[in-house]
Amino acid sequence: MIFFVIWVLLIGYAVFLAPGGDADPVFSKILSMEWGDIDPLVFAVFNSLGLFPAVFLTLLGLNDRQRWPAWPFTLASFGVGAFALLPYFAFGQKPAERKLRTPKWLVRFLASPIWLIALIALSIGNLLTLLQGFSLSAYREAFFASSLVSVMTVDWFVLWGLSVYTVRRFYPEARHRALAWIPVIGPVLVLLLNRELRTPLKRNKTG
């Protein structure tokens, strides 16, 4: 029920409450590729919304035994973030199934250190853009001037919370589980440091 409530609130915020006018200054700069005119913090948050879905593709793909298949929601999240994932968490997670839906080749890829390290590297690369210098006041101005920035900020926090929940849900016995609180990188680190937990093909019998 809590995920459904969050979903409704998120939609309500995006439709009725998000500040910003019809002419979105940040969105227009993204479309025209004037990225240098966007505050680095705004740009880093925007980019992380493309990294979070890759994290959920990994976490949910390695644990896709629930009532609904996870892949349609994770793929849709690349476009609309938590708006796509929250219905899955609200309605599609139970009762659990025994058989893993994810193809074996994809399981091996998602569980591979190469993929996990690549996600970490991309996340660190995104954070390095902040070294150009960022301004919290500039972010605040963008938040109230751009509906894109205001909605993506709220979306970012929801995705962060969902990622922590997902790690706790599927990997309650994981070592270093507190690392999941590190945005984007944390859940990937938990998987990387718990090799035995990212091999779902061997865990099917205990499902």
Automatic annotation (TrEMBL):
Listed name of the protein: DUF2834 domain-containing protein
Answer whether the UniProt record assigns the keyword Transmembrane to this protein. yes
The record lists the membrane-crossing segments as 41-62, 69-90, 110-131, 143-166, 178-194
- Protein species of origin: Planococcus chinensis
Keywords from UniProt, A to Z, are:
Membrane, Transmembrane, Transmembrane helix
Top-level lineage group: Bacteria
Question: Which taxonomic lineage is given here?
Answer: Bacteria, Bacillati, Bacillota, Bacilli, Bacillales
